[in-house]
Specification:
The chain is mainly α. It is about 35% helix and about 5% strand. Strand 1 and strand 2 (about 35-40) form a beta hairpin. The chain is flat and about 100 Å long. The N and C termini lie far apart (about 70 Å).
Length: about 190
């Protein structure tokens, strides 16, 4: 028993090896600032751009192509002209003839323009849209206000956490036989006396 409990020297707790720190070439920045967002300099630029809210994989590739930047180039090795060009393409995609279907805010409610929103603008407009739906008392507005799905999903078994403190299914209590019934039954074995 004692032999099994004792640990052998080679079975001691081993510490997990620390993650290697990326070694960058001299002159390569660890953090890049593009479109008011800090991006990791050790990643490829098309991967790093996805760290900006409102930029997905396809939009990052398109931005790199329109700016004339190699998408696999490390973000930390970009020069100032490339950073400025990428920021300009991200902020003003219509000026670079990005197709309308590529934008995330087509036919805006307030001014009717096609836009691609990023960062805090995206969150602000999204919140305002939900407030407007609540104000005009649409079905979607009511569902957002209640914290329930607004696209027709069933809610019997899913979306449980959105419903608040709801009791689960409880088992019915078995009623104990009445005291008078026990006295009658204990009198004899048969049906009749």
């Amino acid at each position: 028993m004692e032999q099994q409990q004792e640990k052998k020297p080679d079975q001691q707790h081993h510490k997990r090896p620390e993650a290697p720190v990326p070694v960058l070439k001299p002159g390569v920045k660890h953090v890049m600032r593009i479109a008011n967002t800090d991006l990791k300099g050790d990643k490829a630029i098309f991967v790093a751009l996805r760290g900006i809210k409102g930029v997905g994989a396809a939009y990052a590739q398109t931005t790199c192509a329109l700016a004339g930047v190699n998408p696999t180039k490390k973000a930390g090795s970009l020069n100032e002209q490339e950073v400025q060009k990428l920021t300009d393409v991200l902020m003003h995609p219509a000026a670079y003839h990005v197709p309308v279907w590529f934008m995330n805010r087509r036919h805006d409610y307030t001014d009717g323009e096609d836009k691609h929103l990023l960062l805090s603008d995206l969150e602000f407009v999204h919140d305002n849209d939900i407030k407007r739906l609540r104000m005009i008392k649409t079905y979607r507005g009511f569902r957002h206000a209640a914290g329930l799905p607004s696209r027709g999903q069933r809610t019997k078994s899913n979306f449980r956490r959105n419903k608040g403190n709801v009791m689960g299914v409880q088992r019915k209590k078995v009623a104990a036989p009445a005291a008078g019934a026990k006295e009658k039954d204990s009198g004899g074995k048969g049906k009749g006396k």
